[in-house]
Amino acid sequence: MNKQDLVSKVAELSGLSKAVAETVVYATFNSITEALKSGDEVRLVGFGTFSVSERAAKEGRNPRTGATINIAASKAPKFTAGKGLKDAVNG
User: Fold this and answer.
1) Which string of b and e fits 16-35 if b means at least 16 CB within 10 Å?
2) Which residues form the domain of 22?
3) How many Å apart are CA 23 and CA 11, to the nearest integer?
4) What is the per-residue pLDDT across 19-68, written as a single tens digit (0 to 9) for each?
5) Taking the complete model, does pTM exceed 0.90, yes or no?
6) Are 34 and 10 found together in one domain?
7) d(CA 39, CA 45)
8) What is the number of structural domains in the chain?
């Protein structure tokens, strides 16, 4: 399912027009993104939790040359599925 499929499904299930459903879906994604950018967690009870994981700086190797390189510290978005989602997927 891609973003447009999700918009269509939301429109179908909610009775909204596709234009309104698209606005709602994009607003939801933007809200989650902004919360993560500001360092907050987004907890959706029964669905899951979006958070930011910190990766420390480390040394790595260039696979072609074998030369040591420095890999900068970074942040990565993370999703942990909630019990309701896990139970739904597992039947």
Assistant:
1) eeeeebbeebeeeeeebeee
2) 1-40
3) 11
4) 999 999 999 999 999 999 999 999 999 999 999 999 999 999 999 999 99
5) no
6) yes
7) 19
8) 2
Q: pLDDT class for 91, splitting at 50, 70, 90?
A: confident
Residue 88 tokens, joined: 């739904």
For the chain, the helix, strand and coil percentages under 3-state DSSP, each to the nearest 5: 45, 30, 25
Residues 1 and 33 in one domain: yes
Beta strand 58-61 with 68-71 is antiparallel
The alpha carbon dihedral of 30, 33, 38, 40 has a sign of positive
Under 8 Å between Cβ of 11 and 21 = yes
The amino acid at residue 62 is N
Structure-token pair, residue 52: 């930011």
* 48 neighbors 79 (Cβ within 8 angstroms): yes
